[in-house]
């Protein structure tokens, strides 16, 4: 059994990332705006944790900077490498630039152009491979060995978990008495971190994950208590490009089993509906992966515990401009 991340490590990560990652706001969804938009009101109050307001537009900066800042000067000089569909890529590129290190990112060829462009703009070198998350991991490991880079894994590492956990710590500090926190889940870095922080700092609060039904390997793993892997041909079907990972990380899975209360699976239609709701009733821009939590709150309340205060994590706002235009047009047509 591996070592579990402690509250002390999470608080240390919180200090380490201060001034680089933002302490993002928690916005209450106004019921009057839901009524005006003719959206059925839930029985609980919803608060959105806007990780879209990080400098890179997603939560990934927390874990990436926490881990890169642990490296020795010699390791920083050799450079860092990772594998990512987009948001972790930007997190590592931003952290490496801030600490004066070269960054190499292995990305799938189907990653959104907006995420590739943003990664290049941060000074990173991109190596493209096929769509499978397993393929980009193998390529990154090959380059790590060849050039002596330091690997900054997307989720399966204590420093990454502790960094992402700072998001959960902020939520319980910002919303005392929060009953339920909903986090997206893919490789499990964010969900395992948030759940660990929330349960250690506010044991009475429930933590649930949300993921696309088309990539529901985490839900299956959680419910069977066995770590399963789905083929890329299945997980790549979802519009949630940040949630296409084929399995939870091993360390993340241990934290999820210990601290998470449940996981709900969201349909593609519900993801789009939640994005339209967020665009209609808030000033926030959601990418598909970040909208699964609002979808869980709005359309899966029957699966969730009966509560009064719900915090949903909007994990990222790096939305393809064309998709945003389409959603806005659909809203205008209704």
Please mark out the parts with pLDDT under 50 across 5 or more consecutive residues, or reply none.
Answer: none
Q: From N to C, what is the helix and strand string?
A: HEHEHHEHEHEHEHEHEHHHEHHEH
Fraction in beta strands: 5-15%
Distance between the termini: 53 Å
Helical content stands at 40-55%
Count of helices?
A: 15
Write up this protein.
Strand 3 (80-83), helix 5 and strand 4 (103-108) form a beta-alpha-beta unit. Helix 9 packs parallel to helix 12 (250-259) and helix 13 crosses helix 14 (288-299). By secondary structure, the protein is an alpha/beta fold. The mean pLDDT is 93. Helix content is 48%, strand content 15%.
Reconstruct the topology from this structure.
Elements: H1 7-17, E1 26-28, H2 31-36, E2 45-50, H3 60-68, H4 73-78, E3 80-83, H5 87-98, E4 103-108, H6 113-121, E5 125-129, H7 133-147, E6 150-151, H8 158-174, E7 180-184, H9 189-201, E8 206-212, H10 217-224, H11 232-235, H12 250-259, E9 262-266, H13 268-281, H14 288-299, E10 309-314, H15 321-333
